[in-house]
Amino acid sequence: MRTDIAQVIDGFVYHPGALTRAEQEALAAEVLAAAEHAPFFTPVTPGGRPMSVQMTGFGPLSWVTDRSGYRYAPRHPLTGRPWPPMPKIVSDLWRRYAPDAPQPDACLANLYRDGARMGLHQDKDEADLSAPVLSLSLGDTAIFRLGATTRGGPTASLKLNSGDVCLLAGPARLAFHGVERVLEGSSTVMPGGGRLNLTVRRAR
Asked: Could you give the 3-state DSSP secondary structure of residue 26?
């Protein structure tokens, strides 16, 4: 069942157009440059299934998954090197939209190309689930789906455009959410096309 997103769950805050076009392009370029040293990789679930997104990370920690399970790790799984520093503009967005939360120590970068999507899931691998999760969209528009804290409840969809920010806090912190699909070719922000999603968290 789908309904209006404002009626699904409290604590979901949407900030459309949080970044200017110039800021979006600069951040996309910074992420792609950093990916030369911390390359995007294909995450594999503990069950051995490759995910359709590609991933890298920034900051002291980033989320990884393989046959050993879901967890936060201080080093890139392929290179063994520490993750690159978190982009300043990402830290600035956290201070702007989550000023009372502890400082973030993990930034995940998910790259959606070639029909990639993300099934409904909860973010619950962090040590303190009271800290919010901030999500920033760059590039192609995504159809984002938000539900309740249990499966099978009402859900709602929202178009997330390049430069949009959402915050999952309070009850929405453990809401099921995902990306139904990406509208390919809807933006020219990302070199090479696609959508880049940066999610900022306090993992420790």
From this structure: helix
